[in-house]
Write a structure and sequence with these properties.
The chain is of the alpha/beta class and 340 residues long. The chain has a single domain, classed as TIM Barrel (Alpha-Beta Barrel), CATH 3.20.20.70. The chain is built from twelve helices and eight strands. Strands 1-2-3-4-5-6-7-8 form an eight-stranded mixed sheet. α2 packs parallel to α3.
Length: 340
């Protein structure tokens, strides 16, 4: 069965199509963050460009992705270049620039090839290191354009999980671990570093299953990654996950689960960081306790330094609630658990 023809995929598309999209042509937002990158704490400027959106979202999309609302179906390449020019007027220089497009920077349907080359050159002239994101299917046809930036660019791929059942029946990713590996190997062959995104707790997994899936995925992608970003799922508007959340069938992961994954992958030679969106909030990773702020801050400090002392000795009475939650869930039958 083709995944695009599945009821799951069609339901995601139905929900996606109910979202009113933007008619704006400016960039979505920009902000700063810090993380452990290339052996040190890096100050990063994040830029989210407004594009026509992920090509996969035009067919169906991923169960947790809520970026569709910020996309403009009528935006042109020259509009995106204008966004870049306006951004560089505001922030003309910096150490690290992280660029998101609500899809794939290297997708020619999202950003025309000639504009990709022009924009990358502008970024290279202004920032010491640039991080772009793409689905793996766009890497092969773009490698000649980006290999000239080897050592100054990193390509991020949102693999999320290496479990094929999770990718298909939980996330609806529409590509495989093998697709990711081919892209990552090609990037490394051309001297380009790879960032891998791992999703903690996609739908239909229990808390314990989600932890195991993330730990296994991180260990699987170590040979192909230069840095791994653990992303606890946050509930975004207009997504299948939001539908589950509102009907009481999904809870975002506990912050304790984030810490368990980070500690259990401590001895890997590749940094695993976690820059959490919505930490401590109901729609983001949270413990549901007064410790949320303290624990979130500890994870942030760890992710800036790769210093495990920030998270190893954390404790709170709500850890028992987390343990009880995991135990209670394990007694319930979930549709995907048998695949893990």
């Amino acid at each position: 069965m083709n995944i695009i023809d599945s009821g799951f995929s069609l339901e995601i598309r139905r929900i996606r199509n109910s979202i009113e999209r933007s008619n704006r042509k400016d960039f979505v937002t920009t902000y700063t963050e810090r993380e452990y990158l290339n052996g040190k704490t890096a100050n990063e400027r994040v830029l989210i460009l407004r594009t026509r959106g992920c090509s996969w979202s035009y067919h169906s999309g991923c169960s947790m992705c809520g970026f569709w609302e910020d996309t403009n179906p009528n935006i042109k390449g020259e509009d995106i270049e204008k966004q870049v020019d306006e951004f560089l007027q505001m922030y003309p220089k910096g150490d690290v620039l992280k660029v998101f497009t609500s899809g794939s920077f290297l997708d020619p349907l999202e950003i025309p090839k000639e504009k990709q080359a022009t924009i990358l050159k502008k970024f290279e002239d202004s920032y010491d290191f640039v991080i772009i994101e793409t689905r793996p299917e766009h890497v092969n046809k773009s490698i000649e354009m980006i290999n000239k930036y080897a050592g100054k660019i990193q390509v991020a791929i949102g693999l999320e999980s290496t479990n094929p059942k999770v990718l298909k029946y939980s996330i609806n990713k529409n590509y495989t671990f093998e697709d990711y590996k081919r892209a990552a190997l090609l990037l490394h062959e051309n001297g380009i570093s790879v960032r891998t995104y791992v999703l903690l707790k996609p739908p239909f997994l229990t808390e314990r299953e989600a932890i195991e899936d993330s730990v296994n995925t991180i260990k699987d992608v170590i040979p192909y990654s230069d840095i791994i970003s653990l992303n606890p799922l946050n509930v975004q508007k207009g997504t299948y996950v939001e539908y589950l959340y509102k009907s009481g069938r999904f809870r975002p992961p506990f912050l304790w689960s984030v810490i368990e994954v980070l500690i259990r992958t401590k001895n890997e030679e590749v940094p695993v960081v976690s820059l959490i969106t919505g930490a401590g909030k109901k729609r983001g990773a949270h413990n549901g306790h007064t410790c949320d702020g303290k624990v979130s801050e500890a994870i942030r400090k760890y992710s800036e330094t790769w210093d495990y002392s920030y998270i190893e000795k954390l404790d709170c009475q709500c850890k028992l609630d987390w343990e009880n939650f995991k135990n209670a869930e394990s007694k319930i039958s979930f549709p995907i658990g048998e695949f893990l």
